[in-house]
């Protein structure tokens, strides 16, 4: 199945964010696609569920995609601006494009990605912004732990 539009791709990541929140975790989702829209892998932030500080949504989706010969023509879709850790993953493996659902709640390394040749598309979906706003207000300690703030 192909997901040719940014909205269709973002819907997969949004569903992952919902699943993560329903599991008691941080409601951030991601998915990795080929340039033509074939889903390679999807996932959500599982730091709480797995007790693993490295299991951010983008990392989960990347791992679930399995090994690829090249990532240059792939698209990482994430419901929230990628943190520096996840931005590093995008750069390390040469992912060519990132679609961001919300960069108002949090802004990580997306400008750095753009400066280094990654195509970044920001959507700022109102439902994703509201989901993260509600989560960060209700769970400030957990949120600060996730983004590395004291």
Automatic annotation (TrEMBL):
Q: Name one Pfam family in it.
A: dCMP_cyt_deam_1
Any GO CC annotation of this UniProt entry: cytoplasm
* InterPro entries the UniProt entry points to: CMP_dCMP_dom (IPR002125), Cytidine_deaminase-like (IPR016193)
Please name the SUPFAM superfamilies in this protein's record: Cytidine deaminase-like (SSF53927)
Which PROSITE patterns does the UniProt record give?
A: CYT_DCMP_DEAMINASES_2
Boundaries of every CMP/dCMP-type deaminase domain copy: 4-120
**Compartments, as annotated in UniProt:** Cytoplasm
Biological process according to GO: nucleobase-containing small molecule metabolic process; pyrimidine-containing compound metabolic process
Q: What CDD domains does this protein map onto?
A: nucleoside_deaminase
GO MF terms listed in the record are: diaminohydroxyphosphoribosylaminopyrimidine deaminase activity; metal ion binding
State the UniProt keywords alphabetically.
Answer: Cytoplasm, Hydrolase, Metal-binding, Zinc
Cofactors, names only: Zn(2+)
Predominant location: cytoplasm
Which pathway does the protein contribute to? Pyrimidine metabolism
Q: How does it assemble?
A: Homodimer.
**Name of the protein in its database record:** Nucleoside deaminase
Please report the organism this UniProt entry assigns to the protein. Answer: Leifsonia tongyongensis
